[in-house]
Design goal:
Elements: H1 13-16, E1 44-48, H2 81-93, E2 98-102, H3 112-120, E3 131-136, H4 141-151, E4 155-159, H5 165-172, H6 178-190, E5 197-202, H7 211-218, E6 224-229, H8 247-257, E7 260-263, E8 273-277, E9 283-287, E10 300-303, E11 308-310, E12 319-320, H9 321-326, H10 331-343, H11 349-352, H12 355-358, H13 365-368
Parallel strand pairs: 1-2, 1-10, 2-3, 3-4, 4-5, 5-6, 6-9
Antiparallel strand pairs: 7-8, 8-9, 10-11, 11-12
The protein binds S-adenosylmethionine and iron/sulfur cluster (2 copies).
Pathway: Cofactor biosynthesis; molybdopterin biosynthesis
GO molecular function, one term: 4 iron, 4 sulfur cluster binding
Family: Belongs to the radical SAM superfamily. MoaA family.
Length: 370
């Protein structure tokens, strides 16, 4: 029998170290082209709009840690919609083109469509519309899809780890039924979201036997299932390399039943590797953050629920942009600070991961956003 080790630590511990960003004296105006130390441009911003969730997925917010005594952020600590919009505008000036709203469960944030409306009114550095996407567990999609679409949301990703009732209920650990997520996906489709992505985190011995059924269910639907390797995000999910099912293994399992052929990336830096069904009935994706690092093309920044900028999913500390905002700094000063942080970025965690680094204190995914 294996024992699950759940360290009792403050889940945001690493992020509590206040790193107040430096405002550089020399602040060239944002040009939309901001390379880090490896030449990676700032292109994507993931925004966590809440650290709360109505699920307790065992690999993300295990009940033993995120229990009734867990201290979630008080409302005053959250970035307001105005603050998020202001930050997004500054990031867009630096080159961000894609926004992903996440959490926690983003649909728990009240009136999220109001935020989406103001983000949709912003422009990229070259005067295009921002591409606004959402990652959700799908539980509230049935109710909210129409409003989200009307507000200007472009794309939706729904997480669903199994179609097997018992497995799914055990993984979300709040006994949430599969059918309600499937209804949410159908509602999003009816509201006009096309090519919905379905994220399935695969954990060995937990849901790996459900991979082929998941692929089969969505084959031909126009939706794209993406199989994600179980990652060592945060400190509380008891990650071990032995629990990871490699993307190569997932591709092998699916290919054995329904032949697939590797497809070209849609764009440089695409996180998922694409595989198309040989019979032309759609595609799947695999996200190999553990077995095949994609740090060399990582253009993603993350803004935590309380306004800290993280330049890597596995970062140990963030840069407190909220402190600058609430201290009354100007757009020009904050943009200068963002520029300096990104210019100095060296992150490449997935390239250097070991069992040892996996045990290091890192911020939780529910706080920093997936
Ligand atoms: N609550 C929303 C959801 O589940 O879609 C959004 C936030 S969640 C943190 C974003 C994504 O991260 C989900 O697709 C989830 O499955 C994935 N995720 C969470 N913990 C993970 C882990 N340890 N390894 C790989 N993916 C993980
Ligand atoms: Fe909640 Fe998403 Fe984490 Fe599951 S993966 S606990 S739904 S934030
Ligand atoms: Fe990007 Fe960090 Fe993930 Fe590498 S480990 S792909 S730098 S988020």
């Amino acid at each position: 029998m294996t024992t699950k080790l759940i360290p009792i630590v403050d889940q945001r511990a690493a992020s509590h170290v206040p790193v107040i960003p430096v405002i550089p004296a020399h602040r060239p105006a944002p040009s939309g082209t901001l390379p880090d130390t490896r030449g990676r441009l700032l292109r994507d911003l993931r925004i966590s709009v809440t650290d709360r969730c109505n699920f307790r997925c065992t690999y993300c917010m295990p009940k033993e840690v995120f229990d009734k005594d867990y201290q979630f952020l008080p409302k005053s600590e959250l970035l307001s919609f105005e603050e998020i919009t202001r930050m997004t505008r500054l990031f867009a000036a630096h080159g961000v083109e894609k926004i992903r709203l996440t959490g926690g469960e983003p649909l728990l944030r009240k009136n999220l469509e109001v935020l989406i409306e103001s983000l949709a009114a912003l422009k990229t550095h070259d005067s295009k519309r921002l591409d606004i996407a959402l990652t959700t567990n799908g539980s509230l999609l049935s109710r909210q899809s129409q409003a989200l679409k009307a507000a200007g949301l472009k794309r939706v990703t729904v997480s669903l780890d199994s179609l097997d009732e018992a497995t799914f209920r055990a993984m979300n650990d709040v006994d949430f039924p599969v059918a309600d997520v499937l209804n949410g996906i159908a509602a999003a489709h009816d509201a006009g979201f096309k090519s919905i992505k379905i994220n399935m985190v695969v954990k060995k011995g937990v849901n790996d036997r459900d991979v082929v059924a998941m692929a089969r269910h969505f084959k031909g639907s126009g939706h794209i299932v993406r199989f994600i390797e179980f990652m060592d995000v945060g400190t509380s999910n008891g990650w071990r390399m032995n629990d990871v099912v490699s993307s190569a293994e997932i591709v092998r399992m699916i290919n054995a039943e329904m032949p697939i052929i590797e497809a070209e990336s849609n764009y440089t830096g695409e996180v998922a590797q694409r595989w198309a069904y040989a019979d032309g009935s759609g595609e799947i994706g695999v996200i190999s953050s553990v077995t095949q690092a994609f740090c060399s093309t990582c253009t993603r920044a993350r803004l935590s629920t309380d306004g800290k900028l993280y330049t890597c999913l596995f970062a140990q500390s963030g840069h407190d942009l909220r402190a600058l905002m609430r201290a009354g700094k100007s757009d020009e000063q904050i943009a200068g600070a963002i520029g300096l942080i990104w210019k100095q970025r060296v992150d490449n965690y997935s390239e250097i991961r070991t069992e040892e680094t996996a045990r290091m204190k890192k911020v939780e995914m529910s706080y920093i956003g997936g």
